[in-house]
């Protein structure tokens, strides 16, 4: 027997709607669902739901912080979410004048402003501000007295630096604050390398010559000892044009390339996804920036906070 009209139009509960929306992988899809009807919009706009969604899904790549913000461009899937104002930072003290980009992490931008020089010729520790560009909110950090400047201790991870003109890699274990030297495969004296995680017990390395059209992919055991120096070449990834590495963050390697269009070289930025080796075109700026900060975040409608303390925690406890 066919259901009655009343039975077929029973409204879904808010809890069921939220469970469905939590399964939407892309914030862009979430925005589309929000525009469908009033009940969907109310469920998605709830601050508790937005917190659950942000906790369950990684932030998306929206563009580069350079001298200003360069959003990804169509046909990149995040282009619609990246079209957001707020990267001029004119809401900072002084209308944003004198503030320089320092770092980017978890959708927040750290800026600094010089406080000039002391009478003895030294410099003051700069003013610091943490900003959420999409919600246009900022938090000025307390001034750090110069006599109390110390560096934080980390409890996980390692840093890697390639030794200039050597087949060697310098490793810093932050947990033990110890340096060690790793051997690289032969013929890596002038190759650029990026080290990434490849599971719990392995490292991966992307390697290529500057302005080459291919990237070599290696893996190695992560623990110390001779086996850690045994790199195995796993794959060779073809690039769309002559490229070079510019950054690595959020599971992606960022490259700058130069496309020949009718005899004219156009600058193009690409991403190389670490897990899948998928290459996507990002944007084509007029100027060339070798030093860039990849920016990951959520669309503006997902950056609401219910209180001052919520904003404080979201900015600092990342």
From TrEMBL:
Source organism (scientific name): Eragrostis curvula
The F-box domain, residue ranges: 12-53
Name recorded for this polypeptide: F-box domain-containing protein
PANTHER family assigned to the protein according to its UniProt record, in alphabetical order: OS07G0554100 PROTEIN, OS07G0554500 PROTEIN-RELATED
InterPro entries associated with the record: F-box-like_dom_sf, F-box_dom
Pfam families in alphabetical order: F-box-like
